[in-house]
């Protein structure tokens, strides 16, 4: 579970962000639940697990695991289904996370920074909401993100009307333009841009 949870947010965990705290996988323990958070400044991914039935997470704590360490933990613990033991310790005023599984012991020095307050991005009263057919969205994203890694830094243009959204992606070699029907709750006309890489990172989360 620990390995899969880190992997779920890995695409939003940067390693070279100017804000040092972002170069971390944020773990939030909250009275029976644990959330894994990655935020690279462009996208936020939060993966939460309800573990109230275990009775072992009855506390509140927020920790920051450095990016490289979090990815190494995910890789090291990927095999096997046995339980993982987690504990904290202090050494010379530094806080460490200790992870044990199948004879593997990992000690990680935690970051002592304030993680950005992302709660404003997770609210329920958004300014603009819409419903779109997932299969058609996946097909559209696939046609854009399948053109090669060299184009990932280029923007994808989104243009919303009352009942449609047009996605347009222009490179030196080709143009991809798709229009999809939507059900808009607000009927707003708006436009914005997303990097192609951001769409590529989001694609795996549009599960069937």
Low-confidence stretches: none
Work out the radius of gyration. Answer: 20 Å
Q: Choose one word for the global shape.
A: elongated
Order of helices and strands: HEEEEHEEEEHEEEEH
As a percent range, the share of strand residues is 35-45%
Level of helix content? 10-25%
What does the largest sheet look like?
A: 5 strands, antiparallel
Within the largest sheet, what's the order of strands?
Answer: 8-11-10-9-12
Q: In whole angstroms, how far apart are the ends?
A: 21 Å
Number of strands: 12
Number of helices: 4
Could you tell me the mean pLDDT? 85
Structural class: alpha+beta
Secondary-structure map with pairings?
Elements: H1 2-9, E1 24-30, E2 33-39, E3 44-50, E4 60-66, H2 67-76, E5 85-91, E6 94-101, E7 104-109, E8 130-132, H3 134-145, E9 155-160, E10 164-170, E11 175-184, E12 190-195, H4 196-202
Antiparallel strand pairs: 1-2, 1-4, 2-3, 5-6, 6-7, 8-11, 9-10, 9-12, 10-11
Description of the structure:
Helix 3 packs across helix 4 (196-202). The protein has helices spanning 2-9, 67-76, 134-145, 196-202; strands spanning 24-30, 33-39, 44-50, 60-66, 85-91, 94-101, 104-109, 130-132, 155-160, 164-170, 175-184, 190-195. The chain contains 4 helices and 12 strands. The protein starts with a helix and ends in a 6-residue tail after the last helix. The strands form 3 sheets. A 5-stranded antiparallel sheet has the order 8-11-10-9-12. It has a 4-stranded antiparallel sheet with strand order 3-2-1-4. The protein is an alpha+beta fold.
